[in-house]
Amino acid sequence: MGRGKAALLLTSWKIARSYWFSEEKWSAWGLLVTVITLNLGIVYMLVLINTWQVNFYEVIQSHNYQGFMESIGHYCILAACLVVVRGYQIYTRMMLHIGWRRWMTERYLSDWLAHKTYYLLQLSQEHDMDNPDQRISEDIEMFVWLTLRLSLDLLQDLVTILSFIVILWNLSGIITLSIAGFEIPIQGYLVWVAMLYAMGGTYWTVKTGRPLVKLDFDQQRFEADFRFSLMRLRENAESIALYGGEKQEKWSFHQGFGKIVATYRKIMKVRRSLTWLTSSYTQISSIFASIAAAPRYFTSQIHLGQMFQIVDAYRHVQTGFSFVVDSFTLLAQWRAVVNRLNNFLVSMEMVRGQLPRAYKLNISRENASVYSACNLQIFLPDGALLIKDLSLMIRPADKLLIMGESGCGKSTLLRTFAGIWPYASGKIIVPDKQKVMFVPQKSYLPYSSLREMLVYPDIIKEDKDKVMRETLVMCRLPHLTDKLHIVADWGHTLSLGEQQRVAFARVLLQKPNWLFLDEATSALDESTEQAMYKMIVSTMPNAAIISVGHRNTLMNYHTEKMELNRLGSCVVTTIK
């Protein structure tokens, strides 16, 4: 158990330390010191209020109206100061929170996008990384909030204990217990009572609430899986409607939501027991201090003001000792969040570190005039050989058509040329300072304006609306010319054929030197396909075009054909 807690703390420090030693470390530490100082100020104000209670109840007991009004005025000043300090403490904590979250979000996004990690995680069979979007959008927020909340609350509780335990010790005096005829004097007995009470509450809270750690972890995963399945229905609405798959989808949703309900019911039972325990603990503690202090009061060793001071001090000490009791649910959530973020970090590190070393694909940009591959070996994720010993040279203005039966590796070859397929070895030389563009069968259309989508992944830096309208007309999309500034989900608004024509509009606007097309005209009729190819050949005569496809009509636009087979070999012939 101790090792598990130590490992958890080390893991959380591994996640957190980068921010505290980053380029923003001075502002981060400055805000943290400010928050801690304000926390200490709050404890100091509470000590002053505790001391104020002695005088307040004394003047009430002595019917001193003048002293009563002065005490009220004194309290108003203390309360106003406490309110101001609390307000600034919350404000600075929130500043630290959003700064830390922003930095971590940017870092995780960078790591996720760097070196195609998001793609490698999808390909990897060994690292089952579920819902990385949730890790970045929700778990980082929870980690920052819970870490600040728990660590600062723990610090404040420790300072509170140290501050009020002195008061409680001095007011406790000495109590004598008679056991089997022996008189045992106990110094500061109220302190020991508070400690024993808190220790008992902590033990039973941990014992009762321990299952929450795994249950909260599972619940977050099931919730994310359920959201993802709903999102997939929205993204594939047309296909599901055509198949009439509503019944199957509903059954799948019921299965996913059933896991949420079953886990939630388990959480309900644990939290019910935990609530019974913590509520009983809190309610009993409110009267427990009075019972503990009663012997000294009724023997006239302390007066009424000191009695209330003891009750207040005891409450603060007992609350400080009860950190685990009061924060157990948060601690369980924090542990689950730390585990999820750590799994995400480890998965990203492993897919980036292991795959390139295992397959040793060398892609380099050189001052060369040809796009070439040498001794290229391409494998499936399970290690099976897909393409063997491929050496190829593609010169400017070459027109190469890659064909073969389904599953022989045509699209995977293009992924390897693009440098995103990690299960390969050999060398690929890319001509330096020349634009290379890959167009998949279904191009990605971001949620943005049409003009921003047309230059993706570049960013619009100048007004090209006139050129864009002309290009849309050339690509047989005249109905989109007046929609350049409309923001929409174009992936669902446009048909697959329109999406492929938009991809050709991108090609014409960005004018790559090396153009790779992966079945980029599969949704177009032969007439439109012919128009698209003729257009790019005439407007970009020096561009090399490498196409993957099944249609024999594609041979009309290429000069060479590469035929792949399931044995992993290929043959290049001239098209007559």
From TrEMBL:
Bilayer topology annotation: Multi-pass membrane protein
Recorded GO CC terms: plasma membrane
Stretches assigned to the ABC transporter domain: 363-576
Annotated transmembrane regions: 26-52, 72-91, 158-180, 186-206
Subcellular localization: Cell membrane
Gene3D superfamilies: ABC transporter type 1, transmembrane domain, P-loop containing nucleotide triphosphate hydrolases
Pfam families: ABC_membrane_2, ABC_tran
Molecular functions (GO terms): ABC-type transporter activity; ATP binding; ATP hydrolysis activity
Listed InterPro entries: AAA+_ATPase, ABC1_TM_dom, ABC1_TM_sf, ABC_transporter-like_ATP-bd, ABC_transporter-like_CS, ABC_transporter_sub-D, P-loop_NTPase
Main location: membrane
Keyword field: ATP-binding, Membrane, Nucleotide-binding, Transmembrane, Transmembrane helix, Transport
Boundaries of every ABC transmembrane type-1 domain copy: 59-333
UniProt-recorded name of the protein: Putative ATP-binding cassette transporter
Organism: Pelosinus propionicus DSM 13327
